[in-house]
């Protein structure tokens, strides 16, 4: 049971400002923010002098215990959320892959059983749509009522949806308070280019990038946005990684359409050159990491507000599994670990002056809560919200090594990355879950977060009522 806490002497960071204040927590909630708050007899004081006090990050994109490419991601709900907690992330969204013929509410129950037993911090879900035939489309509404109002369609993979089904879900989403998210790449081009390179004996990890280059993603972004615009339906592009897509999102928003985009730290920090490395397979994810021009465009869009969120696409596989593609890049399971690295990386970028701390909080927490309908509970240091709090030490230096991580994966693409500043402690609803390298949380302590229905009617995030 959470004790009463007083976070004393730190600087609170919001999207708008950074100010000196004490934060009082009673049980699981933030109850008061003010100067010179006094601790009661049973209050534990957390000394935050010289530290920043931040809302826990919300990772809108993880794949825990997910079957893919003949295996399953190496972090289950326990390991994935433990890793999250140790990187200052206090809520994760996991994708539930609907089975063919499966009603959406059934899919939620199937996965929540697992998650509720294992998760150490709070979690919610997005539904990944495979099948809306035979009345299944109408079960979306029940999922919204259960607190899962976001649905993702894939334009690629063998389970990806047709253009018609994508359009149908967009149209339906408007009526039921749902948000459609999309993995945008051109499937035909991926298949064609993949076959071409393999037939030419070009099988290294570099050809993963070459078979899904800039335009393969950019064209699909443009197409997806076109359909959303035609319906004036809200659209959220997951893991945006290319300049053309960023430009299309920017234009749609300037025209007043409710188009939103997420990018990931791996796209902000690395370029496609990583696929030429000996360990190139470790970086194989889809969409692949793009060139320097795309990386610059992503940062610019993020700074302008045309990319609203940063999430990880945490989808870890073991080294031995990544080796399956040593002679054929199509056999490399797609995905990288990252849930423990996102907030520390974005905050380090802020600490180096690349963005503000306010911006890091906005894209890693506050905007995610607003877009996905959980801002009544999460996403800010504010009275009434859950006490999901990170104490951040801007003076600490931290070198990422897999040994220092807390998931179940045996490598990290962030190995050797030097960060300026690092989370010192993480609290989940008032409970300490991480402090100075050590995990203190409990399996099963994480709760399912019921999201509100989503109505994003203009680019102004405030319209999410
Ligand atoms: Zn993903």
Q: What can you see in these coordinates?
A:
- The structure is a single chain.
- A hairpin with a 2-residue loop joins strand 20 (431-435) and strand 21 (438-439).
- This protein has 13 helices and 21 strands.
- The protein has two domains: 4-54 and 381-408 and 419-439, Urease, subunit C, domain 1; 56-374, Alpha-Beta Barrel (TIM Barrel).
- It has 465 residues and is α/β, with parallel strands linked by helices.
- Strands 8-11-12-13-14-15-16-17 form an eight-stranded parallel β-sheet. Strands 3-2-7-18-19-20-21 form a seven-stranded mixed β-sheet. It has a four-stranded mixed β-sheet with strand order 5-4-1-6, with no helix packed on it.
- The mean pLDDT is 96.
- The structure holds zinc ion (ZN).
- Residues 61, 63, 313, 315 line the site of zinc ion.
Low-confidence stretches: none
**Chemical compounds bound to the protein:** zinc ion
* Structural Rg: 21 Å
Task: Describe the sheet with the most strands.
Answer: 8 strands, parallel
Give a short overview:
The chain has 13 helices and 21 strands. The protein is α/β, with parallel strands linked by helices and 465 residues long. It has two domains: 4-54 and 381-408 and 419-439, Urease, subunit C, domain 1; 56-374, Alpha-Beta Barrel (TIM Barrel).
């Amino acid at each position: 049971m959470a004790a009463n806490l007083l976070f004393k002497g730190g600087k609170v960071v919001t999207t708008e400002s950074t100010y000196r204040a004490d934060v009082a927590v009673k049980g699981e909630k933030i109850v008061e923010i003010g100067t010179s708050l006094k601790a009661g007899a049973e209050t534990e004081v957390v000394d935050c002098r010289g530290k920043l006090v931040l809302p826990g990050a919300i990772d809108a994109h993880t794949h825990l215990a997910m079957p893919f490419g003949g295996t399953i991601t190496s972090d289950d709900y326990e390991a994935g959320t433990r890793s999250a907690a140790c990187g200052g992330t206090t809520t994760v969204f996991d994708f539930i892959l609907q089975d063919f013929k499966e009603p959406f509410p059934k899919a939620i129950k199937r996965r929540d059983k697992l998650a509720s037993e294992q998760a150490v911090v709070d979690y919610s879900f997005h539904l990944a749509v495979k099948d809306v035939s035979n009345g299944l489309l109408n079960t979306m509404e029940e999922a919204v009522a259960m607190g899962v109002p976001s649905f993702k369609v894939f334009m690629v993979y063998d389970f990806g949806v047709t253009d018609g089904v994508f359009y149908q879900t967009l149209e339906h989403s408007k009526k039921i308070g749902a948000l459609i998210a999309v993995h945008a790449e051109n499937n035909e081009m991926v298949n064609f280019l993949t076959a071409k390179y393999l037939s030419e004996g070009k099988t290294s990890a570099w050809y993963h990038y070459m078979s899904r280059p800039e335009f393969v993603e950019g064209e699909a972004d443009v197409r997806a946005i076109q359909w959303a615009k035609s319906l004036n339906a809200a659209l959220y592009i997951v893991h945006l990684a290319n300049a053309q897509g960023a430009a299309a999102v920017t234009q749609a928003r300037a025209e007043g359409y409710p188009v939103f985009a997420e990018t990931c730290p791996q796209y902000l920090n690395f370029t496609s050159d990583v696929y030429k490395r000996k360990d190139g397979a470790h970086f194989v994810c889809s969409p692949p990491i793009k060139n320097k021009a795309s990386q610059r465009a992503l940062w610019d869009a993020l700074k302008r507000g045309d990319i609203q969120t940063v999430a990880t696409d945490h989808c870890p596989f073991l080294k031995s599994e990544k080796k399956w593609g040593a002679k054929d890049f199509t056999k490399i399971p797609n995905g990288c670990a990252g849930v423990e690295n996102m907030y520390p990386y974005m905050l380090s970028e802020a600490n180096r002056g690349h963005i503000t701390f306010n911006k890091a909080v906005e894209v890693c927490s506050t905007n995610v809560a607003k877009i996905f309908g959980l801002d009544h509970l999460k996403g800010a240091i504010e009275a009434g919200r859950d006490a999901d709090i990170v104490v951040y030490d801007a003076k600490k230096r931290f070198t990422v090594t897999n040994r220092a991580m807390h998931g179940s994966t045996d490598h990290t693409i962030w190995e050797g990355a030097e960060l300026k500043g690092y989370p010192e402690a993480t609290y989940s609803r008032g409970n300490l879950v991480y402090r100075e390298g050590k995990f203190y949380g409990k399996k099963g302590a994480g709760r399912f977060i019921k999201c509100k229905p989503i109505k994003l009617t203009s680019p102004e995030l405030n319209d999410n009522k």
